[in-house]
Each structure stands twice: as C-alpha cells, then as structure tokens.
Automatic annotation (TrEMBL):
Superkingdom of this protein's organism: Eukaryota
The name this protein goes by in its record: MYO3B-like protein
Source lineage: Eukaryota, Metazoa, Spiralia, Lophotrochozoa, Mollusca
Annotated localization: Cell projection; Cytoplasm, Cytoskeleton
Binding, ATP: 82-89
C-alpha cells in the first residue's frame, strides 16, 4: 500500500489538505482512499475496471466487515453516506456483490436474486432529479443474515422515508418516480386502455413542472423507459410476482394517475366544492373496486363526523379537497411500495434465516445531505436524518481513534471537533426557551409542558385547524430564534434556515403542515376498505412495519 493511500498518514489533516489530496488521486484514476477506518470513494462517473483495482477499495470495506463478523460473531454495519449523486447506491451494490462472492451459502441463487431486485426497487423508488438521473428517493437498509459460522442465509431490505410527495408534486427539472414513465413508454395501447389510460400528457402528475416540456424529453429518454418497462415486468415474473399481481400493481398506478386528475371547483349550493369532470372519478372508482361512487365523491369533498349520534357533514374547501385527494394518491403509492418491498423480502429469505440465524452485516444507503435551490419538507427530513448519522459518526469515530492511540501508547492531543448537538437540540428538543415573545402562538398544553424542538412545534401547530405555514414559521422564530443554528429569513414569513453540520440550508415552509398532517381522511379509507378488490382492501389493512414495509397481511376476508 502506498503512503498516500491512507490520508491519516498526512501530517496536517484539515479540509483543504484532504480535498487537495483526493483531487490529486482522482486525477490519477485513484478513486478510493482510506482515512483510517473510513473509505472515501469519489464517483468516477465513468466505467472503471473495479474488479482489477488494488486497495484502497470498496471490497476492502466489505472484507473487513465479514472478517470482523467471523472473528467476533457480532453484527456489523457499513454506513454509506454522501450527497445526492455521490455514488452511494452504486458503491453499496459493489459491496453486496463482494460479500456474496466471499460468503459461502447453500442458496447459490441468492446473489442473482439480490442483484435482480435492484432495478425493480429502483423503478418504484428512484426518480430523475437535478442532481442525479437515477436518484434513490428512499433510504435502504440491506441486512445479510449469516449462520454463527459465517454462511450466508438470506437478505432483507428495509426502506425508509420514501419521498411519497413526489407522486403529486415535484420541483422544476425533476421527474416523478421512474415507473410512471416506464408504464406509458412500454405498455401496448390495448393494455393502456384496459387501465383507461392513453396519453401521458393528459395526466397532471406526468406533466413537467417546467411549462412547454414534454413528458419524455427526447426519443432516447422514451427508449430508456421503454426498456425499463420490459425489464421490470420480466423481473417481477422472475422474483415470483403472479400475472395477477403484476396487473394489480399497474392498476394501482393507473388509479393514482386518474385520482390526481380530479379537479374541484367551488360549489355555490353547498359553499364547498364539486368535481368538475367525472371521468377520472369513474376511472378511480372502477380501478379501485369502489362500487359506491357517490360515497367516494362525498368522501373527497366532505367530512362526516358524528356528534352525540347525529351525522354531521361538513364541506371541504378547494385546498382541503386537493390535499385530501393528494394524500390518498401518496398513501396508495407508499402502500404499494411497501407491499413490493415485502414481496421482494419474501423472495430473499428462506425459513433457515429464522432457524439458524447468527450475526448479520447491514448496509445503510441513506439519501445524503441535500441543499437545492428550493428545499421543502423532504429535504428537511433527509437533512435531519443526516444530522443524526453525523452525530453517530462523531460519537463513534473520535473516541475510538483516541482509544487506539492510548492502547498503542501514542501521545496525542485532544482532537477538537465541532459537535452537531446544538442542531439536534434545535430539531428534537430545545431545553431552555428564552424568548419572551409568546403572543399568537398556539399550544395544546400550557404551563410546564412547553413544546420543544422544531419537530414538536411542528406537531403542535399541525393540530390547529387555523394554523398556516406562516404561523408555523412564526412559532419557530419565537421558540427557536435563540438557537444560533436557526435563522429567520428577513422579508419572507414562510421560510427559515438552519446551519447544518454540512452547510446552511434555507427551507421553504410552504406545505410543511400539510405534509406533516398527511391527513388521509377516514371516509376515503372506508371506501377502500369496502372495495370489491381483495388486493386493495388488503393494502389498507395489512400490517406495516415502522418503515412502511408490508411483510404480512391481516386479511379482512371472513
Ligand atoms: N463506481 C461507479 N462507477 C461508475 N459510475 C458510477 C459509480 N458510482 C456512481 N456512478 C454514476 O453516478 C450516478 C450516481 O450514483 P448513485 O446513484 O450511486 O448516487 P447516490 O449517491 O446513491 O445518489 P442519490 O442519493 O441521489 O440516490 C450513477 O447513476 C452512475 O451513473
């Protein structure tokens, strides 16, 4: 190994020196570099002969994890972190391949199965963003299970924070999840008509946020999605999805496309709203197996409650009806995604995993830190998650390094590092509320129980029907303004910024309350629970893990 393969050999280890050294190595096609235990992999953005490369190497990380598992019998975790487009998912795939290659297993098809499910999950969980044409819009934790003696038994995937808002809304220059484009590019006209679909341009969630741009940017993009569709259907069959399941998956996607096309206009008669064009409504009812279309319409435009046994119907305004419709579209998509992950896991796991299970190796591929021209609720959640990972990283790495120095009798000076605890306090808990300005701020509880941290404040504000995104920001300013990590934006009462460990990010709070409430109306869910389609009913009654994966059904069928 060369001296510059490991940057911990450098005399000075600051940001400038590290960047300089990495750039110099990159220019000589050395894409991987160690910093002690950590491997820094710079995206080569071109095909490189990865299997010939000498260390430092991604395979070394995988090797080290496996060796440690054998030696200690303890669970190992590889954390893959970096900003969007850095190459996390590709690196994770390389490491999984290598782990499969070096671990003995009775199931020789497991490697094929794991490699095979990637394009399937990517079709439903990835999308083209301004940063990356194939950006993962969900976090993945892939766990490889071993016997106590190191034989590979199976794998399991957990998905985290799927960016379901993308189904109904996205920023300029970004696309919806791949599968919607694949569907239109690859399906025959007859099959599209079976789902009441024709032209992708007719669908709100397919049209580009940039006016004037077509759904497919050019014939090449169309071809890309066309082959994705054929590949996707072949994989679904290979991993054991029945023809009926495949039809049902596309049926849910078609229902989402039609649902998002339902338009509401003010209705003088009720002072609420009514549905303009009934065609998408008919299509949704038919596809989702809702026989009582009147009930579905009422659930979309009104809320029914019972007070002292009396049925009270209140009419939604346009914003509430739009939010309710979109909440259902997002829920359908996230439940479908959870179901697919569950099915994939079934295919990757054998009964042996439960019987002779020993330690495991987990690979966490989380969306990296994001700072776009416009940052919304999703960026906020992703960045907060990255703050947590950063905290873990610092809590783990620095004390460990210092312990190693002590053990080896090396004299060392205390390593000074910037803790991100104050950002985490700002988000999760703000111990001392110093601001005296509490006017116009709503609280559920008074006195001792003041809300703490942005997440708590957000939850509190979400409970008040009169609250707005501006009143949320006002509340944040009042209660978080004392934190040096929080900055209000002068002249914009709907934005705020946070000084994260990576950099300062300005968040546009428009949509925060709606996203946090994620108000899926009980009346709409009731319609689906009465669907004549078992699959739809099961999607809404199945047990979902905390991350959203549907691993087993609790059937409603008698
Ligand atoms: N080792 C590699 N060799 C060649 N190309 C690569 C490699 N790693 C990444 N790339 C290229 O960079 C693109 C982005 O990589 P990848 O999708 O892994 O990034 P990411 O960090 O997972 O991004 P996101 O957080 O947006 O999902 C890939 O689609 C691929 O074109």
């Amino acid at each position: 190994m060369r001296q510059d393969d490991d940057l911990s050999n450098l005399e000075v280890l600051d940001e400038g020196t590290i960047v300089h050294a990495l750039r110099a190595r990159f220019q000589h096609d050395h894409f991987c570099t160690y910093i002690g235990d950590i491997l820094v992999a710079v995206n080569p953005c071109k095909s490189v002969p990865i299997f010939d490369e000498q260390p430092p190497h991604l395979f070394w990380v995988a090797d080290a994890a496996y060796r440690e598992l054998l030696a200690t019998g303890r669970n190992q975790v590889i954390l893959v972190s970096g900003e969007s487009g850095a190459g996390k998912t590709e690196s994770t795939k390389y490491m999984i391949r290598h782990l499969m290659y070096i671990s003995p297993s009775d199931d020789t098809s497991l490697l094929d199965k794991i490699v095979q499910v990637n394009p399937l999950l990517e079709a439903f969980g990835n999308a083209a963003t301004v940063m990356n044409g194939n950006s993962s819009r969900f976090g993945k934790f892939i766990e490889l299970s071993y016997t106590p003696t190191g034989n590979l038994l199976g794998a399991k995937i957990d998905d985290y924070i799927l960016e379901k808002s993308r189904v109904v809304h996205r920023s300029r220059g970004e696309k919806n999840f791949h599968v919607f484009y694949a569907l239109f590019a690859g399906m025959s006209r007859e099959r599209l008509l079976y789902y009441f679909l024709e032209d992708p341009e007719c669908h709100r969630i397919m049209r580009d946020a940039e006016p004037g741009l077509g759904v497919f940017r050019d014939p090449e993009e169309f071809q890309y999605y066309r082959s994705m569709f054929h590949n996707l259907t072949a994989i679904m069959t290979d991993v054991g999805f029945s023809d009926e399941h495949i039809t049902l998956i596309f049926l849910v996607l078609a229902a989402i496309l039609h649902l998002a096309n339902i338009v509401f206009v003010p209705c003088e008669e009720t002072d609420g709203v009514s549905v303009v064009d009934e065609y998408p409504l008919h299509a949704v009812a038919k596809l989702l197996g809702v026989e009582d279309e009147v009930q579905l319409t009422e659930a979309l435009i009104s809320t029914v409650s019972r007070i002292k046994g009396e049925r009270i119907q209140s009419w939604k305004n346009e914003r509430e009806a739009n939010d309710g419709r979109d909440a259902l579209a997002k829920e359908l998509y996230s439940r479908l995604f959870g179901w697919i992950v569950g099915q994939v896991n079934r295919n990757l796991t054998t009964d042996n995993v439960h019987r002779s299970r020993g330690p495991s190796i987990g690979l966490l591929d989380m969306s990296g830190f994001e700072n776009f021209p416009c940052n919304g609720f999703d960026q906020f959640l992703i960045n907060v998650t990255n703050e947590r990972l950063q905290q873990y990283f610092m809590d783990y790495i620095f004390p460990r390094e210092q312990l190693d120095y002590e053990r080896e009798g090396i004299t060392w000076t205390n390593i000074e590092y910037h803790s991100n605890e104050d950002v985490l306090n700002l988000v999760f808990q703000l111990p001392n509320i110093t601001s005296s300005e509490t006017n116009n701020v709503h609280f559920i509880s008074d006195g001792e129980q003041k809300p703490h941290g942005i997440l708590r404040l957000l939850d509190e504000e979400s409970h008040f029907p009169q609250s707005t995104d501006a009143s949320l920001v006002h509340k944040l300013k009042t209660y978080s303004g004392a934190s040096p990590r929080f900055r209000p934006i002068v002249g914009d009462n709907c934005s705020f910024s946070i000084q994260h460990f990576a950099e300062q990010v300005t968040y546009d709070a428009r949509g925060f309350l709606e996203r946090n409430r994620d108000n899926l109306s009980v009346d709409l869910v009731t319609c689906l629970l009465h669907s004549n389609n078992n699959f739809i009913r099961d999607l809404f009654t199945a047990y979902r893990s905390e991350t959203g994966t549907i691993s087993e059904y609790v059937s409603v069928r008698q």
